[in-house]
Design goal:
By secondary structure, this protein is an alpha+beta fold. It has helices at residues 2-26, 30-34, 39-45, 150-156, 220-234, 246-254, 259-268, 391-412, and strands at 48-52, 60-61, 74-77, 107-111, 119-120, 133-136, 176-180, 185-189, 194-199, 207-208, 213-218, 275-278, 283-288, 295-296, 301-306, 311-315, 330-333, 343-346, 365-370, 373-378. The relative contact order is 0.08.
């Protein structure tokens, strides 16, 4: 008896509460109070867009599937998929009504979920069963910009930084050879007929310094010019006027007499029988042709000296990298003879031609002949360089390489 009463009472309370709820809701929004759906029921009512491995592994399927041990793949509805949309907070039944003055956003159209240029004015699914994404008013712009809330930016890890001018560095590696600076090479030669009386103890490869004696030379022309200069500067008539001796001194300089030898003549007031020739710069003796007692004709090279304090590195840069090379760029040189060491330099000269030296055979279709020329109808474009000499040598080399290539391919087969 008491149980029935309690059950009836509970039923009455539930009915009363339900009636009160309906009545209270009817004053505002009757439809929402009756069509109340829990989140679990809404999740079950949505169709899955794909199926995922139940253990969370990166294995997906568009159709229901089972694991090797017989378990079903987990159905993933559209709401449970990865999304960048703001998650709406869950509302309680009492707070389901919209606040006073709030307006809902109006859907403008629906766009393809895969980013294809396909839109729809009504909800739609693509060929894979994926729902089209709603685009609200104000979300799309003509400039293609995307608006993200601070919450989305934080969740997706999006970062930005101001645009700035930067220097893009590209390292180019190329082979080369080390050579002497041709601007630092001196040649010692006689400008008049001379005789080598004595040669200093220097040879090819010796290091000499500027002013170091190399040889003693007797030259009639030098002796005559020295006597004339000495007579001019010692004469009682002209010794007081320095301009009278300038012509004789210039004659000695034209004969390439070292400045130290001219100064010795001015100091000693004697005409020397031989002139001591000295090194014009510091460097390495590249060539020694002077022999004691030899007769030297004008222009004969006796010594060649090169300054090796600064050298050149001639680099063979590939044609594809020529656009990134400019004069003044820094360069680092590494030599095999100095492992572990680097030499700093900069680009000084860029030669105005390509050092390629590569020829290729072409199959051509010939036409008319005449006036020493042959018409090429096919195989060569207008403006392409064509070999006009040493054709036989280049052709023989090309045929030899083709034959060797054929032999190697046959051996591999």
């Amino acid at each position: 008896m008491s149980r029935a009463v309690l059950a009836s009472a509970a039923a009455a309370l539930i009915a009363a509460a339900g009636t009160a709820l309906v009545v209270a809701s009817a004053q505002r929004q009757p439809a929402r109070a009756i069509a109340m759906v829990t989140p679990a029921a809404a999740e079950e009512g949505r169709a899955p867009i794909y199926f995922q491995d139940p253990d969370g592994r990166p294995s997906y399927s568009l159709r229901p599937r089972k694991t090797p041990d017989g378990r079903d793949y987990r159905a993933v509805p559209a709401g449970a998929d990865v999304s960048f949309d703001e998650v709406a907070p869950e509302t309680t039944p009492s707070a389901s009504a919209a606040p006073h003055g709030a307006t809902e956003r109006r859907i403008k159209y629906y766009r393809n979920p895969m980013g294809l240029p396909d839109t729809s004015l009504v909800p739609k699914k693509d060929s894979m069963g994926m729902d089209y994404i709603a685009v609200y008013e104000g979300d799309d712009t003509d400039d293609g910009s995307v608006k993200l809330s601070p919450g989305k930016i934080q969740r997706t890890g999006a970062k930005s930084e101001p645009a700035a001018k930067r220097v893009i560095r590209t390292m180019i590696r190329a082979p080369g050879t080390i050579q002497l600076d041709e601007r630092r090479v001196s040649v010692i030669s006689m400008r008049s007929e001379s005789f080598v009386l004595r040669v200093a103890n220097v040879t090819t490869g010796s290091h000499v310094i500027k002013g170091q004696p190399l040889m003693e030379v007797y030259s009639p022309a030098v002796s005559s010019a020295a006597a004339e200069y000495l007579a001019t500067i010692t004469s009682k008539t002209t010794s007081g006027n320095e301009s009278y001796g300038q012509g004789s001194r210039q004659r000695l300089m034209n004969l390439d007499v070292p400045e130290a030898a001219i100064a010795a003549i001015e100091k000693s007031r004697n005409v020397p029988t031989s002139i001591e020739w000295t090194a014009p710069r510091d460097g390495i003796v590249l060539e020694r042709n002077a022999i004691e007692g030899m007769r030297v004709q004008p222009g004969g090279v006796l010594f060649r000296i090169a300054d090796h304090s600064v050298v050149w590195a001639l680099i063979d840069v590939a044609e594809r990298d020529l656009g990134t090379i400019s004069i003044g760029q820094p360069a680092t040189v590494k030599a095999r003879s100095f492992p572990g060491r680097e030499f700093a330099g900069k680009v000084e000269v860029i030669y105005p031609e390509i050092k390629q030296g590569r020829f290729e055979p072409r199959e051509v279709k010939l036409g008319h002949r005449g006036s020493g020329y042959v018409e090429v109808r096919q195989g060569v474009a207008d403006g392409e360089p064509v070999v006009i000499s040493a054709n036989f040598l280049i052709d023989a080399e090309s045929n030899l390489k083709a034959a060797l290539k054929g032999f190697s391919e046959g051996a591999q087969q």
